[in-house]
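Hi team,

As requested, here is the filled-out complex form for the pyridoxal-5'-phosphate run. I kept the field names the same as last time so the parser does not choke. Let me know if anything looks off before we queue the next batch.

— J.
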Amino acid sequence: MVVQKMAEIPLVLTIAGFDPSSGAGATADLKTISALGGYGVACLTALTVQSSLGVFRVHTIDAGVVRETLARLVEDMPPAAIKIGMLGTGPRTGEVVEAVAEFLEGWRSVPSVLDPVLRSSSGVDLLDSDGFSMVKERILPLVGWVTPNLAEAALLSGRRVEAAGDIPAAAAELQRQFAALNVVVTGGHLGKPDDYFLAPGSAGVWVEGERVETRSTHGTGCAFSTALAVSLAKGAGAEEAVRAAKAYVTGALKNAPAIGKGRGPLAHFWRLKDSSE
Ligand code: PLP
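And here is what came back:
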């Protein structure tokens, strides 16, 4: 008989799209989870045709496959945290959002992080307007965390979010609508790339960032939200988890090699770099 110790490794589930270049989406998330000492499992919501040069096509997965994947996976491998990313575009999206929402209803006791992926940096929609309304209505009330960038914070809050000074009011508006929500507005597009964290019932805090000059910025939002989910799975406190995710992404940007002809991937495994370098 084979006797094995029960795994102590935190299991993290990503519900996300597939980016074949692995800069963003589920395969990038699996790298982030592994790099931070978790065991990653994934449910794909959409396939994209994509390279570092941009997104060329989106093919949303059948909602029945999403539903069954989630059910089969978690009866075997219950997650300690869940990250939700891209949900898709087109007529199938509503059903996918509904399948994910029904799944989340049964998993409210574990930390969940929504990265509200609306559009790729190359300007292609990764969620359409019907999908967006459904995410607000069905997914946001069920998750503990949301990590919008400036544009996503503007759409979700219905406010203008162009400068650092606009962010606290947008985060407060989101929390007015969803009282239990931890909001992290990621400031990667600001001159000084600080993030703003607003926990329920607390004053907001700024988490300072450092500008890294690189063109390897593809999938920074995915890496941040997934790193946050891993820290929460490990039992970190809320602010500690935000700071750990910020530090992870900054290191992954600083160490990124130039891969591809466009906006390349981060160095997800930067902490495993040969120590002799
Ligand atoms: N493709 C997939 C599957 C994604 O999940 C995301 C973002 O989360 C993107 C593309 C867009 O990444 P970026 O905005 O860094 O281009």
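Two things worth flagging: Strands lie at 11-18, 39-51, 54-60, 81-84, 112-114, 145-146, 182-185, 195-198, 205-207. Residues 16-17, 19, 24-25, 48, 50, 55, 85-86, 115, 117, 120-121, 126, 218-219, 221-222 surround pyridoxal-5'-phosphate (CB under 6 Å).

Thanks,
J.
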